[in-house]
Write the structure tokens for this entry.
Amino acid sequence: MLTRRLALSLALAVAVAGTGVASAAPHKAPRALKDYPTPPVSGKQIADGVDAFATTFARRVTGTPAQTAATTSLRDELTSLGYAVEVQTSRGVLQAVVATKKGSTLPEENIVFGGHFDNVAQTVTAHYDNGSGARMVVELARSYAKVTTRRSLVFALYNGEEEGALASEQMAADFAARKVKVSAYLGFDMVGIAWPLGPGATASDACLCLWRGARDEGFDALQAEVNHRFLKFPSGRNQVSIEGRNVRNSDEASWADAGFPTLRWAGLRKAGTYPQYHQPGDNLSTIDTVAGGHAFFEKGLRNTLLSAYYTAAALDLK
């Protein structure tokens, strides 16, 4: 696991890594952030993916046929990207779709990305909670599919979150029992209503919000270096905000409870700020209204992807 001192040294490494962004895919592991290829996925592609997934697999409540069909679709898509994929099943109905790409020189160390794809029954399509986070994990996997990394990358998509982060709890406990090394778990739940917001936005508590585990103080400096120095994102309450200790609760809590360092991305400081949280109107129309327009949802998704992609890159550089 990542120690606090190592996290701080990572931040310093990022600080001297340069500020350019390369566009050509490397043939060996990059040596600085500027060597990583720019992620090929646009905000429009992510938004379209959120809409298609949430609509196709409506009412994907844990244990239902719709959820099982979503599991199969996610498994097949991640396999098509070149990952080794397995569906881990526990307690009969709990499932985790886990895609892995081995690292080149430190394959025993892992960077884990995760989010849930199940929903509560009344949300129907559940575009924001959590079609948005599930698709972000998939698009990060797409972005890293042809990138050589030192550490192994693991992309996990869970059901059972709405019942208490049950599938992620099983996976995190298994990693802890086997003493698997994890540099960090990167979690995504309700993402994309983020900086920049449109002039017609209705959310007053939105930002590209970045959190870390309670004892992972070193990540504050790492997040600042990646987001504010390298990516040059603005720092501010409704812009790109490093929130510090995580006050949200999703699958990253399973990993934190198991003793692993964690990071979290979201678009609102409080879930309840989203007007259709756990309600039937959690759909694309509501997202667009809250974000101030569909173009701003696309921009928020793209910036979230960039933030997470280069944060993972910084973790891999050490």
In short: The beta strands are 84-90, 94-101, 106-116, 151-158, 181-188, 206-212, 240-245, 262-268. The first strand starts at residue 84 and ends at 90. The chain has a mean pLDDT of 92.
